[in-house]
Each structure stands twice: as C-alpha cells, then as structure tokens.
Amino acid sequence: MAHGARFLLAALALSTAWLGACEEKQRPAYVKTPPKSDDESGTSRGGEAGARPTSPGASSGGKGSGGTGDDCGESPGIDTSDLCDDQVIQVTVRKPNLYFLLDVSGSMAEAITPSGHTSKLEASKKAITRVVKDRGPRLNYGLAAFPSMRTSHPEEECHPAREVFEVTPGDPLVCGVPQKSGPVLDALASRLLSLRAGGGTPLSPSIETLAADLLSLPGDTALIVLTDGAPNCNPNAKCSASECSLSLYGERVGDIQCGPAVNCCDESVVGQDVLDPGSYCFDSDASVEIVANLKDAGVSTFIIGVPGADEFEDLMNDLSEAGGTARKGATKYFDVGDESDLDDALDEISQAVAMPCTLELDDAPDGSNLLNVYLDETLIKAGTDDGWTFDKGKITLLGDSCSRVQKGEVSEIAIVSGCGTILK
Asked: Are residues 132 and 182 in the same domain?
C-alpha cells in the first residue's frame, strides 16, 4: 500500500492483524481494557491505550481468549477510532510445536539429587506439566517416551519410543491467563503419570521412529530430549572398551571381568555370554547423525541432561551442536542438577520456541524505509543493537528487544507500515 499506514498487531504467538491507514505521526491503536465497575478494587485504567488487565474481571481477553462474557466481559475488539480507515485483515499464525522425548530408562528411577526423594523421572514429569500449564495456548505439545518397554517384558528394554501424547494445542486462556487445569493439560498429566522407568536408552532408533511424524507437522517444530545417559541399544554398533558400558562400569559377564582392557562389547571376547553385545556400546555416531538430519530438515533439537548425563558431556555437547541449539560456553547442552534447574531449562526453551524473534509479514513492503516497530507502546529504533532489521519480508528483533519478547515481558507487538522509519 503506497499511501497511509497499516498496523500489524500480534497477541504474542496467537494471532496477527493488519489495520487500516493512519496519519504519519499517529501511534498504533491497542486493545483497550474495559473500565472496572465501582465495586472492583484498584484504580480504573479503562480507556488507556495499551492498558494491561490488573484482574481477571478487567481482562481484555474476553471470549476471544477462552473466557466467557459472564466471567470476563465482552472483548472490546481492536480500537480503530483514531484511524482514518477501519479495515482489518486477519492473518493466521501457526503456533510452534514443542515435542518432548522423555528417557524412561531404568536409571531414571534414581533420585535427582543425592539427598532427595524425587526421582529423575518424576521431576521430569512435573517439569513438563508445569511448562505446558504456563505456556498454555502459545504452543502445540506432543510427547513420546523411550524405550517403549513393558515392565513385564524385559526383553523389550531396547524398543524405540512410542508416542504417548499426540501433538495437540494447549488449553485456551481463561480471562487472558493460562488455566490451572484444562482438558489438554489433564490428559497429558494422566499420560505422564502412567510412565514407569525401566530398560535401556535407544535414542537414535527412537528419533528415527518419530522423524517422519515430526517433519509432517505444520509450522515450526522443536524436539526436547530429556535424558540421563548415553544412548545405547543399537545391536549393530561397534565400539572400544572406552565406549562400552559393560567395560566402563566394570560389569562381570560369566567368568569375564569387563574393564578398560577387556572390551565386553566385542563378540569375540564375550562369545555367547552376551546377547547382542553391540547394544551395550554408546550409540554416539548414529545419534548425532539422526539429530543433524532432523536439523537439516528444519527440526531443532534441545538436549537436557539430568544428573548422570554429565559423565557423557562430550556426547551431549555434540548432540546439541548437531541439533542447532548449542549454548555458549564449554557446556553446550542444558546440564541440570536438580528440579529447579530442570524447570529453568524447560522455561527458557519454551519461551524461545513460543515467542520467536523473527516475524514474517504477509504483503510486506519492498523495503524497510516505511516500517516502524513498537513493543507495547514503546517505539524501538531500526539499526541499533537492541532494535530490529528487515529482510525478505521478515522483521527480526535484536538484543534486548528479542530478550524481552522471549521472556514474556511484551504483551503486544505492533508493526506500522507507511510511516517513515525511525533510525538510531
């Protein structure tokens, strides 16, 4: 549109809209919070542009945010009173997919801290439930567990993952806030409750089993692997004693004492005493390769190592590098030591996935000289370290602006098209 200005108003990760023309110096219009009734406590912020709700009754979420008219009041909609045109064109934004791949091998039954009573598996279940509750409708969620063994069938201890919870949108907001309980959250929590620890760690065959479904999902997809040890269970793997779990942990096989000088993953050493000795090799190369293949196809993989994984730091780092999610510093993966660390890791990952710093514009202008970006009511300048850039129809937020969006500190983003860009 050559003349006038348009607005892109984004209720973070949920919806996007272009609004009609404005004069060059006008500010973006925002959803206005309904005035409080006389019997409500606090000071009314009623008609303030960009006012944020201070109580459920004052929420601007209304019916559109999962509430009801009786509970939250009718949604006021987008205020176009100050615009010279009230054209509104909705643009659908696909919510990202957050897919959990949870290690339920036997070692996950151990306590997450030496003095604690909560197992690594139980801590992981609680952390997953919390993040689904906190992020709510900003994401779609899926879950698989590996191995897919039944405790009564120990021969299944190397079976690849099975999907426990099909990818599903999170529960809608109620009065503009996440629900403490909802059908999606309750169903996921129920599936998590049923999981028990046992078996090996067949990581590469599990990801291979899930890959086709992950790649077929619409929108961006991120895979989160929660594990406490090196992958194994590949009967075709070959390894030295240094990567053989039987030798590394000094296990005894019949009359053979495994150790650094005795490779109990070598069939010529253990003969018929060990079934599929390659299954006890750390399946490092195959796991890194399958994670890299996923990244090349568009799915990033985050690695969260609960206590025990630190023994295999190099492999955890390699998996993070291959998945495109390596962290700064020597430790590239999320190395967690207790339940608090686990919560923090999932919170950081889910924020980054749910609130991307790159916004793709439909019907974008040819250049950025007629664009301005607002976070809530604050203009951020182009060409600064904490500003934004525009390239090929996409706006990318930088520095502190990106960080604020990912931390959930910004309630609305407005992109104005048609008014001269404010530079540094």
From this structure: yes
Residues 145 and 75 in one domain: no
The answer as to whether 337 is a domain residue is yes
* Confidence bin at 339 (pLDDT 50/70/90): very high
End-to-end CA distance of the chain: give it in Å, rounded: 25
Residue bearing the bigger pLDDT, 319 or 136: 319
Q: What is the pLDDT of residues 108-162, one digit of tens each?
A: 999 999 988 999 999 999 999 999 998 888 899 999 999 987 655 555 688 999 9
Report CA dihedral (402, 404, 409, 410) to the nearest 10 degrees: -40
DSSP string, 315-374: HHHHHHHHHT-PPSSS--SEE--SHHHHHHHHHHHHHHHHS-SEEEPTT--SSSTTEEEE
273, two tokens: 């005493």
CA distance 22 to 370: 13
Answer yes or no: do 290 and 209 share one domain: yes
- The verdict on 104 and 40 lying in the same domain is no
What gap in Å lies between CA 387 and CA 402, rounded to an integer? 9
Query: Is beta strand 252-253 parallel, antiparallel or unpaired with respect to 299-305?
Result: unpaired
Residue at which a domain ends, from 354, 383, 407:
354
Q: Is 252 left (phi over 0), alpha (psi -120 to 50) or beta?
A: beta
Does residue 295 share a domain with residue 220? yes
Q: Which domain holds residue 114?
A: 97-234+283-354
Structure pTM? 0.73
Q: Is residue 424 part of a domain?
A: no
Same domain, 338 and 369: no
Q: Do residues 217 and 316 share a domain?
A: yes
Reduced to 3 states (helix: H, G, I; strand: E, B; else coil), residue 266 is coil
Number of folded domains that form the chain: 2
Please work out, in degrees rounded to the nearest 5, the angle formed at the alpha carbon of residue 37 by the alpha carbons of 31 and 40: 105
Give the separation between CA 21 and CA 422, rounded to whole angstroms: 18
> In this structure, what are the phi and psi dihedrals at residue 93, rounded to the nearest 5 degrees?
-115, 125
- Six token digits for residue 410: 């910004």
